[in-house]
Specification:
about 30% strand; alpha+beta; flat; five-stranded antiparallel beta sheet; about 120 residues
Length: about 120
């Protein structure tokens, strides 16, 4: 409604992808900066994906990783947010309930459905 979620006309100089080493850049299965919906790929390794989002209120990264354990797999998901100005804290506080109770649970349910479809219910144990 206010256009806060639009990408700014001037992209910040400190993109996370610019911090990748030459080795990590070569190892990534997707070139850094490739668009994936509203995100840009920073890197995509075999079991780990880092996406970046820049808009007028926040510079954020979403990390998902899958680690093998003795009993199966463990899925890790984290969101990191960096301020882009005074509005970031207000914006993040305003959207927190929606993220916590709607967006993240829906994302995790979709991941669980995709996992079950691909590997079966036993793989979730």
């Amino acid at each position: 409604m206010f256009g806060w979620d639009r990408e700014p006309s001037e992209i910040p100089r400190e993109l996370f992808a610019e911090r990748l080493t030459t080795e990590d850049r070569a190892r990534s299965t997707v070139p850094a900066g490739t668009r994936e919906g509203i995100f840009r790929v920073v890197y995509s390794f075999e079991n780990e994906l880092l996406l970046e989002l820049i808009n007028r209120t926040v510079h954020a990264a979403a990390l998902s990783a899958l680690a093998e354990t003795p009993n199966g797999y463990r899925f890790y998901f984290a969101v990191y947010a960096r301020e882009r100005g005074w509005i970031t804290r207000v914006y993040m506080a305003a959207i927190d309930p929606c993220q916590r109770w709607v967006i993240y649970p829906a994302m995790l349910r979709q991941i669980q459905r995709d996992w079950t479809e691909a590997f079966g219910m036993d793989a979730l144990k």
